[in-house]
Design a protein that fits this description.
The chain has a single domain, classed as TRAP transporter T-component (Serine Threonine Protein Phosphatase 5, Tetratricopeptide repeat), CATH 1.25.40.920. Helix 4 (41-61) runs antiparallel to helix 5. It is built from 16 helices and no strands. By secondary structure, it is mostly helical. Helices cover 71% and strands 0% of the residues.
Length: 296
Amino acid sequence: MMHRIQNALALAVVAAATLGSCAVLRAGSYATEVFMREGDPALAQAALPTMMKASEALQLADPQNEGKALTTATLYVMYANAFLDGEAFILPDEEYERKRELSLRAKALYLRATALLVPAVERRYPGFFAVDFGDPGKAAPALAKFSKKDAGFLYWSAAAILSAFASDPMDFETAGLMAGALALFERALALDPDWNGGSLHELGITVYGSLPADLGGSKEKAKAEFDAAVAATGGASPGPYVSYASSVCVALGDAEGFESSLKKALSLEDRPGSALMDSLARRKARRLLADTALYF
């Protein structure tokens, strides 16, 4: 019990299931559309590694190809977030060793994705992650290398780094990439805010809601991203409600908002094209509701 409470506090950096399975899965390419329609998470979990290994083979044959690196990194982050961190989150405290094993596996995949995408960013602008993004004069030339067509690349680069950091905030090497990751995310948000049906807005709920203010967090921005995500999905996706509950309501001590957001998520009907992410979001919502007393 004490470990779980401490964990909940420590992960004010990024909420328990890191970026939110639904937000990450929603951003998959057409190649993963079949997984989005799968209502059985276990079946999707068993099938995704085959696609991941095939993508690795293609990437290794052409290591300088940015598109192939992006596809492989995307699959790493999706699998780690949805099926490793996601499973670790719902396991009971008594299965601490299993939870740790899953978390370590997830971290390893996040780092693999980061290792593919950080060099790709640096090829666009050498020294990108050493830029002082607090200085507009230095930030502007670096960010100008990315245009609207790069929204997906920016999303996944930021997601990989943020996930790796969330899995181990004491990893100083990954922590050193955080300013650049946030800059990439905000560049994507500025260029194409409604990219992929509101995926950036949904990610923004957790990014702004979970990061401390000195790393770019803002509860006001998180609330604005929540409103934008709900609007982008017509209020039909449980994901924004789960992200808002875990990232914002917990931090604000808003037990009523926490409960109402999660109950709203559980009340929504399945969407045929998003059965997997909806199922995973509801699974997390049920666990959060069951553990309400641990957060308030």
